[in-house]
Amino acid sequence: MLLALETDMENGIRGDRTDIDGRRKAFGTNLLPEYNLRRSFRRFTLEAIKDPMIVVLFICAVLSLCFGIQKQGLKQGWQEGVTKILAILVVIIVSSGGKFWPLNQCREFSDISSYIPETDVVRSSKWQRIPICRVVVGDIVFLKPGDQVPADGLFLDGCLLHIEMTKIDGKIDEVDAHENPFLFFGSTVVDGYARMLVTAVGKNTKHHAIYLRGSIIDDIKRITSIVGKNGKRVALLTFLVLLVRLFTGKIYDDKGKRVSFGGETRIGDVFIAIVGILATPTMIALTSSPEDLVLAVKMCLAYSMKRLMRAKILVREPSICHSVASVTTVCMNKTGTLTMDTMEVTKFWQGLNSIEEAQHNLIAPNVLELLHQGIGLNTTQPPSKSSFSSPTNSTEKAIFEWAVKQLGMDVENVKRSCTILEIKPFNSKNRQSGVLISKNGDNTIHVHRKGAPEVIFPMCSHYYESTGTVKVMNKGSKALFEQILEGMAENGLRCIAFAHRKTSIRDYFTFSRQQLILLGLVGLTNSRRSGTRGTVEDCHRAGINVKLITGDNKVTARIMASKCGIIEPDYQPGELIEGEEFRKFSSEERMKKVENIRVLARATPDDKVLMVQSLKQKGHVVAFLGRGIGDAQALREANVGLCFGNQGAEIVKACSAIVISYKDFPLIIDILRWGRGIYDSVQIYTQFLLSATFVALVIDFVMAVSSSEPPGFDSVADVSSGRIPYPVFQLLWMKLIGGTLAALALLTERPSRDVMQRPPRNLKEPLMTTKMRNNIWAQALYQIAIFLVIHFKGKSLFNVNAEEKDTLVLNTYILCQAFNIFNTRLSEKNLFDEIQKKKLFLGIIGLIVSVQVIMVELLNGFSGTARLGFGQWGFCIAFAAASSMVTWFVRCMPALGNFKLPMLKPKID
Prior knowledge:
Blueprint: H1 17-27, H2 37-49, H3 52-72, H4 74-113, E1 118-123, E2 126-131, E3 140-143, E4 152-166, E5 172-176, E6 182-183, E7 188-200, H5 216-247, E8 251-252, E9 258-259, H6 267-288, H7 292-310, E10 313-315, H8 321-325, E11 329-332, H9 334-338, E12 344-350, E13 353-354, H10 365-376, H11 394-406, H12 411-417, E14 418-427, E15 432-439, E16 445-451, H13 453-456, E17 460-464, E18 470-472, H14 475-490, E19 494-503, H15 505-508, E20 516-525, H16 532-541, E21 545-549, H17 554-564, E22 576-578, H18 579-584, H19 587-593, E23 599-601, H20 605-617, E24 622-626, H21 632-637, E25 640-644, H22 650-654, E26 658-660, H23 667-705, H24 728-747, H25 770-798, H26 802-823, H27 831-837, H28 839-857, H29 860-863, H30 870-891
Parallel strand pairs: 11-21, 11-24, 17-20, 21-23, 22-23, 24-25, 25-26
Antiparallel strand pairs: 1-2, 1-3, 3-7, 4-5, 4-6, 4-7, 8-9, 10-26, 12-13, 12-20, 14-15, 15-16, 16-19, 17-18, 19-20
C-alpha cells in the first residue's frame, strides 16, 4: 500500500506542489461535495408543484382560463385565469424560497466551521499542522486524544488507540484500532495515539450520520398536521354542501334564473359548476392550513443562528432552543471554562526546596537532565523525527515553555540523546501520563511519570534533592510535602508531580511501580475569566443553579468557587464534597444530596457523568459547560452541551450542541437568553397563526355556503350557490401577513430582558400551553362573532352594498391580525419601553395598516375591494382594537384555564 501510494512511513509524501496537485487530481480533495444550490432550489420548487392543493388550484386556474376565453373572448377572457396562474406561481416561488433560505443559512454555518479542525501530517520528513481539508491520499497523519480522524485510512502504529464512531441510529461505538485497523472520517480519538495512512478523502470517504436530539420542529409539525386535517375536513364539508345544493337545482344562469338538471341543461355548464365547487373548498383548505408555521420557525432558527454567529457562537443543533429555555442547572468544569486557556508555572519545588530558595543553575546536572527528559519527552506529540513544537494542551504547553526558558531545556538535544520506546498519554481517569525511553549513550531504560500528586505520590518511595541526593520519603517528609501541596492549593495553583525510575530491560517487567523517585513539583496558575461572578449571579436570578465539577483538590476548588460566587465563604456542610465520597453514596442518598452539592472536587470523568445523570433523574434540565476530553461523556449526557472551541479537541465539539469560539464567559447568559427568547417567540407566533387560521377557516366556510346573491354561471370563480371567499390577490395578501410579515415581526426580534427574570419553563410542558389555548379561543370567538355580524347584518347596520360588506369583512380581519400581533406583547412588564426598541416590530404593523389602506382606497379595482368611508373605517378600527381588551380580559381570568378547544386537544399535548 505504501509503495503504491509513493509514501514513506517515516518521511511521508514529498509534499511539493506537483505531488499535491497530482494526488488531488487522481484521488480528489478532502472537501465534502459542495451543495448545489441551484439543484436544491429546483428540488424545493418541484416539491411545491407536486403539492395536491397546488395541483388542484392550477387545474382550476387553467379551466378558468379556457372557459373565460370561451365565454368572453380572448381579449377579456384571459385576465382572470392568467391572474390565478400568476398567483399560484408566486405562492410556489415564495414557498420554495422560504424552504431554501434556512438550508442555505445552515450551509453557511457549515462552511464557517469547516476550517476549525486541524491535524498533524508528515511531509518531506517534517511534521506540520494543517487544516483537514488539505489532507491528501498518501499522507501519514498523527492522531492524539481529541483529534478528529481527517479522512479514511489504515492504522499503522501507535499505543492504546481508541476511537468513537457515530452509527446511523445515533449510537456511539468505541473501537480499538489495534483490533480493527480501518479508521473512518468523522470518528474522534478518545484515548491513545497513532499514525495512520490516508487511503480515501472527500466524497470517497465513508460518512457517518450525525445524530440530532428531539426537535421543536417535531412539535410544530404535529400542530400543523392536526390543524391542517381539520381544515381539510371543513373543506370537504363545504364541497358536500355545495354539491348538494347543485344537485337540488339551486344554480343560476347568466340572467339569474334557476337551472335544473333536465331539459336543455348543457353538460359543459354542469361541468363548469362542479369545477367551481371544487375550487372553493380547495381555496378554503389552502387558506386554513398553517403550513407556514414550520417554515417560519425554520427561518427564525436560521436567522438566530446567523446572529449568534456574529458573537462567535456556533449552534450545531438549532432545535436545542427548547432545552436551553428549560435549563435549571448549569454544571461546569474549571480549567478552560471558569479560567483562561493559558497557564503559567509560578512555583517549582525540587525536593523540599522552592524555586526561590534554589537557583536552577544550582540543581544537580543529573537531576536537571532527568527533568528535561520527563518534561520534553513525556508528552503526546508526533514521532521522534519531527521538528518539535510546543504541545497544544495548555498545561503541557506551560510546563514545556517554562522548562525551555527557566531550566535551559534543549528539545532537539533531548530527543537525539534518547529513543522513545512507549508513550502512555494522559488519561482523565488515571490522571497521569508516562513515557518509557532508552538512553542512547548507555542503553539504560528510564521510566517517567507525570500527573496529579495524589496519583504520583503513592508510587514514590524516595525523592531527589536539588543537590542530586536521593532521600527516603518517610512520614516526616510526606507530611512536609503535604504542607507544600496545601500551600499551593490555598493559592489556587494546580500542582503537577514528576517521578522517575532507572531500570533495565531485564528488570523493567518486574520492578515495583511503587519504587519511583519524586523529581519535583510544579505549581501552575491560570487567571479567572472576566465576568464569571456576574454571570453566576445572573444565573441565580434566573432560577438556574450553578455547580462546579473539577478534578482539582478540595481547597483549590473551594477558592475558585468562592471567587465566582458559586458558594459562600461560610458554606454549609454537604455543599462541597469530593468525587470519591459522591461515588460511595447509595442511589437514594445521592438523590437526596445531589441538589445541595455546589462543588464536586477530585472529580473523574465518570463522576461528571454520574452528576449529570443524577440531576436529570431528579427532574433537572442540565447544561454542561466543558472543554477537555474528560468532559466529552458529560457533554453528551447533558440536555445541553456547551464548550469553548479550541484546537485539538474535536471530540468535545462533536459532543456539544453549542460551541463558543470567543473566550468570553458572560456569553453563557446570552445563550440562555437566546433559548428562552426563541422558544417564547415560537409560542407567540404559533398562538397568532392558529387563531388567525381558525378564524379564517370558519369565516371562509360561512361565506362560501351562505351567499345570498345568485352568482354568474359562466365563471369558475362563481359556484352554484356560493363564492370563493376572497379573490386571489386578497388571498395572497392574507397569507403574506400570516406567513411572512407576522413571522418577521414576532420571530426576529431580540429577546427582552424579562425572559431572564423568571424561572425556567418546564421541559415536559407541551408547546401548546393552557394560556395559549385561552388566548386562541378567546380571540377566535370574538373575531368570528364580529365577522358573522358584519356578514349577515352588515348591509343594514352599515348601510352598504354587497361589495362594501365583503370589504368590511376583509378590512376588519386584516386590522384584527395587526392588533393581534401587538397583543402578543401585552404580557411584558415594561411594554412601551420594549416596544420602542423593536423597530422592525412597529414597522411591520405600520406596513400592514398602510398597505391595507392603499388596497381599499387606491387599488380597489385591482384588489377586488370597495372604498370605505371614515365612519366605516372607524368601525373596523374599533372592532380590531377591542381585541386587545379581549386579550387583557382573558389573562385576568385564570378560571378559564380549563377550557380546551376540541380541534387542539388532546392530540397536540
